[in-house]
């Protein structure tokens, strides 16, 4: 056989079809459902591969061909809009049921995700129950439900939110992650099927009452990651030593009815709290990291009640992350001492200029601090030269400083210069113009540097900081 013919045969060979069936199923599970179904016409070998998915992703993009997007229907009359919404819902439910009829022989489902509007006892709720049952019977490991597509809206106050079927999960469960958005989670009794959960995330979920919350938490024997965000009917959060024994991370975000948080845990390592003033009770010997937000609305009698509470109740705290707009006023009035703090991270929000006055108070309050990160966010900068410097505040342990979101204006540069002059043991300073936005659990995203930075800011920062920096300090300007 000629060499050219061998090359052509090799190039025409279908290597993808020779892959293991399970691997092909995984690949098709990452496609949109309609795209995966289309592969059935490629050849006889591909006819049934799509019927063995590992993930079930049911949303408008996957299950609706026609454009029923909300911006396109909100300008219509109420009657016409209602009819379109009903047609949209019936088409969605019909398409999901049709698809499930084709994949009924699948043995294992890793993930079920549904993003569509469902209400209690409303159209499609019985079908949704059956979709969940279908996944549970196939040992689903992860369930992600968002049951109000207009996610910016609040929950319904008429009791029409879909009630998650807790009793559907029995003793034999592979269930390890549950994410619920816009529904009710209110187990009537401890749910043993939740005992395998390691990750529970609730957003705009109605928890009904303290009794239901107790039933929920007492079911989560293996929970490690727990998040309550903008949840309803949650006035009292109590975690005792006898429940959630493996909990490492807890987030409580803007649960506006919350009044008290009592934490008794030998495993909890990280707590994130954003909200108004509540009563805190701590018995958490391993809690070393705290993330919180400070704003004018929570500055209490001229001091940051939350930071003051932490310094008293968590004397062994090592990592503190705070977001604030009133840092100067609050810290200069009172910033308590953290004797063991090693890592301080601050998102400093300002309208016109960054405030330097709080820096020496923070340095004095954290004598063992080794790493400082300042994420600056200035909206309308007035670039005025600094003519007055605060008294020196030497710090002997600070070794690494990171400043992000810097544009190159004088008030920002003044903070960097002051830190250079007072950090006696500094080894490295990083200046990053990209503004960082905090997500959760230590994760960030960042935006691009502003146009001013590339034109003027970077050269200005580099010129002024190099006049101040020691030869022993590494300066990295991004």
TrEMBL record:
Gene3D superfamilies: Ribonuclease Inhibitor (3.80.10.10)
Domain F-box: 13-61
Pfam families to which the protein is assigned, alphabetical: F-box, LRR_At1g61320_AtMIF1
Protein name, entry field: FBD protein
Naturally occurring in which organism (per UniProt): Medicago truncatula
